[in-house]
Write a structure and sequence with these properties.
Layout lengths: L6 H26 L10 H10 L17 H14 L1 H20 L2 H13 L5 E4 L23 E5 L2 E12 L6 E7 L10 E7 L5 E6 L10 E12 L3 E2 L5 H4 L3 H31 L1 E2 L2 E2 L4 H29 L7 H24 L1 H6 L1 H11 L9 H10 L1
Parallel strand pairs: 1-4
Antiparallel strand pairs: 2-3, 3-7, 4-5, 5-8, 6-7, 9-10
Helix pairs in contact: 1-3, 3-4, 3-7, 3-8, 4-7, 7-8, 7-9, 7-11, 8-9, 9-11, 9-12
């Protein structure tokens, strides 16, 4: 397969690279130092990126978006993540729900929600899956009726009533629309009794709870969503009642894993470049760090791992674009990226030595952003997911 970029892909790569260098990177460290809560969210950055097309990047062209393929999406996510991983995720978080809207939503839902999303540079989307007592079992549900989603949805005539709490929800404190996974039938397994709803901000009985402070991804907002007899029309059901597991499969699910791997690639690129810059300008024992063999070996390993991950990310994107049946690449690449990311950011800290451990803010930031992958989206659950598909 040929991974040479075409003219359109090269143009978007340059757009993302310029935006990352000129807008994201200058703001990255400054905003990382602010304590958690609403303050780290910079709407000016979102508006600037949105006007370029980064917020609506994955919406199909026939629906009014950019309609970028997966290879282009991977390239752009990695370039943006070199400037700031959390800011890259703030944009790409909208992409997977763009896929879902295009694939599963009715014409009425597209008119009510997709049109405002396309028109408003501050319209961002989130997904509500994780709950205080329900996390990775949502991605790899066991054969246990008590496992899985616990936010309850009950039909009352033409409306639905939602009760319960979601936690650590992406874009939770800033989103205008959420795809909420609920348990609509607790008498069966979660995969047989889940219904997904589109819940716009302002829904009666729905409110935002705590906004979380995190070690990494400080720009990216995660919050509680609380439902207290929240009332929704039946027209907000995504797909079919009790068939929510189907909505959470297919392209939208594969993109979620691929998205995180492409973002991790950007961090690895940033860490490797940063280590090189430091090694060339700093001296130890009367010569540049780069002239020490041990440092050369560390940076060589960083390059090797980063380029291997790049190849895997592009392979996963190619498989998705070409609808390769049975491909495990979109699933496994996320798990692999987690391992590579931890190693590369650690090596960058080792190259920086005492400066990395005690003083250098960017080196620490890259490590803290990488820590997010140790528990993100189920992490090692992906390996179990792949094992099941290998049978």
């Amino acid at each position: 397969m040929d991974f040479a970029l075409n003219e359109e892909q090269s143009r978007w790569q340059n757009e993302a690279r310029h935006f990352a260098r000129e807008v994201l990177l200058p703001a990255s460290l400054k905003r990382d130092q602010i304590e958690g809560g609403l303050e780290p969210w910079d709407w000016n950055i979102i508006k600037q990126g949105s006007k370029i097309g980064f917020r609506t990047f994955a919406v199909p062209k026939d629906l009014g978006g950019i309609g970028a393929d997966f290879v282009t999406q991977g390239i752009v996510m990695a370039e943006l993540a070199k400037g700031d991983s959390a800011m890259s995720k703030a944009f790409s978080q909208n992409w997977k729900w763009s896929h879902l809207i295009a694939e599963f939503c009715t014409r009425d839902q597209k008119d009510r929600f997709l049109k405002p999303f396309l028109a408003d540079d501050t319209y961002v989307i989130g997904s509500a899956s994780t709950e205080p007592n329900s996390g990775s079992d949502n991605r790899f549900p066991p054969d246990d009726k008590t496992s899985g989603f616990r936010v309850k949805s009950e039909r009352k005539g033409d409306d639905w009533i939602l009760n319960g709490e979601k936690t650590f929800i992406a874009n939770g404190s800033v989103g205008k629309l959420f795809f909420v996974n609920t348990r609509s039938d607790s008498s069966v397994l979660a995969r047989e009794g889940t219904t997904v709803f589109m819940v716009p901000l302002g829904t009666p009985g729905f409110r935002i709870g705590k906004v979380f402070n995190k070690a990494g991804w400080r720009f990216y907002q995660n919050a509680e969503l609380i439902f207290e007899n929240a009332q929704l029309p039946h027209a907000n059901v995504v797909g079919e009642v009790n068939k929510g597991q189907k909505v959470r499969s297919g392209v939208a699910a594969e993109f979620s894993d691929f998205e995180l791997a492409a973002n991790a690639l950007g961090i690895c690129d940033a860490a490797t470049e940063y280590a090189m810059q430091f090694a060339k300008k700093e001296k130890r024992a009367g010569k540049a760090l780069w002239d020490h063999q041990l440092v050369q070996l560390k940076i060589h390993e960083m390059h090797m791992l980063t380029e291997t991950l790049r190849s895997y990310v592009m392979r996963a994107a190619w498989d998705m674009d070409n609808k390769v049946h049975g491909s495990l690449s979109p699933v496994l690449v996320m798990a692999y990226s987690s391992d590579v990311l931890q190693r590369v950011t650690r090596l960058n800290m080792e190259v920086h030595g005492a400066a990395g451990g005690m003083m250098d803010a960017m080196t620490q930031k890259l490590v803290r952003d990488g820590i997010i992958w140790t528990h993100l989206a189920g992490d090692n659950t992906q390996r179990m997911k792949a094992v099941r598909r290998m049978k």
